[in-house]
Amino acid sequence: MPADAQPGRELPRGLGISTPGARRFWKTWSTAPQTSAWAETDWSELELTTKLVDGLYLGDLKLAGEIRQRVAKWGATVEDRARLRMTIDQPSEAEPAAVSETPDELNMDEELYRLLNGS
């Protein structure tokens, strides 16, 4: 599977996502290399999971375990991908990975820190 980001999909407005963290989650997953093989059912699961992530960022920490179980099925971590026997080709040295952060993304770590520390 190529490491190049996929074109992704726009976050459906009808989901009513209100937090920058959930918008970043959608952007990250909708453009992940795994999505090149996704069927409509997978995209539906991403929508549901993004709603859960929105709830997490709104303060419902009980959702964390469910979110982790869902993203593990998509190969979220190196360990998950090894268990799934999934590989992602790394870009060649001539193709540096693009990194761009929107203002919402810049504040996500701060937002998550506040949420997890009850601030």
Chart the SSEs and their pairings.
Layout: H1 20-30, H2 40-57, H3 64-72, H4 78-83, H5 103-106, H6 108-116
Please, could you describe this protein's structure?
This protein is mainly alpha-helical. It has one domain (13-116). 48% of the residues lie in helices and 0% in strands. The chain is built from six helices and no strands. It has helices at residues 20-30, 40-57, 64-72, 78-83, 103-106, 108-116. It is globular. The model has no long low-confidence stretch (mean pLDDT 84).
List keywords for this structure.
119 residues, mainly alpha, 6 helices
Q: What's a quick, concise take on this entry?
A:
The chain has helices at residues 20-30, 40-57, 64-72, 78-83, 103-106, 108-116. The protein is mostly helical and 119 residues long.
How far apart are the first and last residues' alpha carbons, in Å?
Answer: 41 Å
Structural class computed from helices and strand pairing = mainly alpha
Number of strands: 0
Number of alpha- plus pi-helical segments: 6
Share in β-strands: under 5%
Which parts are unreliable, with pLDDT below 50 for 5 consecutive residues or more? none
**Element-level helix/strand string:** HHHHHH
Main sheet: strands, sense, barrel: none
> Please, how many domains?
1
